[in-house]
Amino acid sequence: MTSERPGGTVKLGQHEIARIGYGAMQLEHVDTAAAGAVLHRAVELGINHFDTASFYGHTTVNAHIRAALHPYPDNLVIVSKVGARRVDAPVPLALAQRPEQLREQIHLDLTSLGLEQVPVVNLRRADQGPGLIASGDDVIPLDDQLAELIALRNEGLIGAIGLSNISTEQLEQALPAGIVCVQNAYSLLDRSSEPQLQLCTANGITWIPYFPLGSAFNQIPSPTEHPVVQEIATRLETTPAAICLAWILAHNDQTALIPGTRNITHLQDNLRAANVHLDPAALAKLDALS
Fold this sequence. Notes:
The protein has 290 residues and is an alpha/beta fold.
C-alpha cells in the first residue's frame, strides 16, 4: 500500500483527500467480488476519497463498499449524494428532493455503509439538466433543503454539506450554511461552470467536477477525442484521458477528481494523470480550447 496520495492532496472540509479519488457509481453493474477487487486496488494506490449514493443500485454500491472496506481506515472519506431515489420503472431514478426524503436517504447511507456519520453529503439539485429536472411538487426551496441538512449535521448524522448541479446564485445563497464542496459538470471542453469554480476558489470550497471526460449521458462530448488532446498525449507519451484530467488538476489547485470505473486497468490508467506534467506550451494549447 502506498503512503502517497495520487495527485497530491486537497482539503475537503476537515479532511485531507487525494486529488484523484474514485467515483463508485459504475460498481452497480458488477458483483461483490469484482467490486471488492477495484476498491481494494484503489486503496492500495493511495485513494482515500470515495464518492457514492444510496440510489446507485438502491444501496448496491454502498453494500459493495462496506463489504470491501469496512471497518474503514480513519483517513478514508466516503462522500454521498442525496436528491434522488431508486424506483422500479423504465427510468430507474425518481427525484427525492423534499426534506424528509433527504433525511431518509441519509439513513439509508448510514445503514448500508455501516457508518455512524456520513463524512460529507452532497445535495443534488434538479433545477436543470443533465438528468431529471424538477417540476410540480418536486420543486423545493433550497433553504428548506439546507435547513434539513444543517439539522442532520447538528445531530451528528452527517459531517459536512456539499452541493451538486447548482448555479452561481444558489451557491451564493448556500454559503452561510458552510458548504465544503461543489460537484458540477465540468471538463476541458465544457467550462460553463467556471463562474461556480471561481466562487468556490474565493470561499475555500473544494471543486469536484463530474463528467470530466465527457459522457454519453445527454451527449456530452468527450475531450479525449479532440485532436489537440491526442497530439499532446502522443508527445508526452501518455493517454488522452490523463491529459484531460491533468489539465483540470493544473487549472485550479482546489480541485479534486472522482473518475469512475469498474475495471482495475482503467483505474490505474486514470491515475496516470497524477504523473503528467503539462508544460507551458501544452497548457496554452489546452487553455485555448474553451
